[in-house]
Amino acid sequence: MRASARVIAAARALSAIALLLAPACALPAAEAAADGGFTPGRWEIFFDDFSHTDVGAFPSNWTLKGPGAGGNPLAAVERGGARFLLSQTPAEGEQQTPSTLYARLPKDYNLPVGFTIEFDAVFGYSRLANDLQAEKQYDILVGSAAASYSLLAVTSQRAFSRNGQANLDLSVGNVHHIAVAVEGRSVRAYVDGRRVIDDPDGAERPIGRVGLQLSSYKGVRQEDLMFTNFRIAEADRPQSAR
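User: That's the sequence. What structure does it adopt?
Assistant: C-alpha cells below.
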C-alpha cells in the first residue's frame, strides 16, 4: 500500500507541473530501444517530492554527509504548484559550485540486485548565462563505504554512463523525466520514457548510497537548477519475500 500511495503522490505532483513540460523530445532513432519505455520499480525504497519541506528549507530525509557532499546551498522552492529542490543562484559575479546531497537510506543498507532511480529536473541554459554551453547537469551518484561515482549524468545535449553515451536534444528551460534501471551491473538509462543508454557493465556492487549532484558548466550561475519526484524502488522481489 505504501508504494501505491507514493506512486499516486508522484503522479499528482507531475500533473501539477504539466504546464512546464515540453512536448516529448526527439531522440536519435539509433539510441532508442526497440522495446521502448521505462518500467518503474514496484517496491518503493525512497521517495521525495518535497511536499513536506517548507519553502526555503532543506529536506530532512536528505543529508549533506557523504563523498563530496555539500557545495552550493540547496532549498525547497514552489514552481507551478509543485515543490522542487533548488541549487540557489549565487550573487552576480560568483560561481555556482556543484550541489551534492544523498538520500537518507537505512544504515548498512545495500540496494537489491534490480532497482530503479528516477526524478524530474529542469534542463538547458539559464537566461543568466552568456555562454550557451553553460548548461545544467545532473549526476546520479551511487557507491558504498567512503566512495561514490556517477551512475548516470545528463545534460540537455547528452547522457552518459561509465561505458555509454547518447546525444539528446531536450527543450531548454523545461522539466524532463530521467530514469535508470539497474540489474546487477547492467544500467539502462531513459529520458522521458525512451531508452537512450544500455550499459552492460555500468554499475559496481555493492551499492548502499544514492545521491544527486546538480552542477553548471564552468560554474556559470543558474536560476532554475532544480529537481523533484526523486524515487528509488526495487524492481521486483522473490515471491517468498512479498
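Residues 113 and 154 are 23 Å apart (CA to CA).
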